Amino acid sequence: MEISRRGLVLGSLSLAIPTRLEALDAAEAGEIEALTAQIIPSDDGPGAREAGVVYFIDRALATFEAGQREAYRKGMEEIQQTRRKMFPNSASIAKLTAGEQMDLLRASEKTEFFELLRKHTVWGFVGSPAYGGNRGKVGWTHIGFDDSMKFAPPFGYYDAEARGMKKL
């Protein structure tokens, strides 16, 4: 079977996007995804869920943020305890309504874990897609970031001086 250049490129791109979890199990990922979807909701465009932020968090916990695994374990344990107190008939965070999930986050927003989760959510939303999040570059589109690398000088006053142009 002959592979075209297009097939090769598309195939290599699919390898860069994580499709399996490394540090989290499916249940943990579902709970974390529900929380991140409230931090960056999908109300006025793609949010954390569409950007695949949970895959960024998973990859981070498996690699460069592996030291935060215990913080996630403890933090999620605390959030689950808060959920059980606030919503005694609930089975999981993911099964709460959006309003209940927000109430749960508000009750947890002064914790160290919430700060860590929020930081990772933002990183996963606007970071490089190579790290598992920002799928389809939706975060970059949302903030107006152009990653085309097709910029032309002058970039600033220092380029004008280098090219012998007058300083403004």
Q: Largest sheet, described in full?
A: none
How much is the average pLDDT? 86
What structural category arises from helix and sheet content?
A: mainly alpha
Order of helices and strands: HHHHHHHHH
Total helices: the number is 9
The number of strands is 0
Number of individual domains? 1
Describe the fold and architecture.
With 168 residues, this protein is an all-alpha fold. The protein has one domain (19-145). Helices cover 57% and strands 0% of the residues. The protein is built from nine helices and no strands. It has helices at 5-16, 26-39, 48-51, 53-62, 69-86, 98-108, 112-126, 138-143, 157-162. Helix 4 crosses helix 7, helix 5 (69-86) crosses helix 6 and helix 5 (69-86) packs across helix 7. The longest helix has 18 residues, at 69-86. The termini are far apart. Residues 6-15 have low confidence and may be disordered.
List the helices and strands and how they pair.
Elements: H1 5-16, H2 26-39, H3 48-51, H4 53-62, H5 69-86, H6 98-108, H7 112-126, H8 138-143, H9 157-162
Features of the shown structure:
168 residues, mainly alpha, 9 helices, 0% strand, 57% helix
Short recap of the structure:
The chain is an all-alpha fold and 168 residues long. Helix content is 57%, strand content 0%.
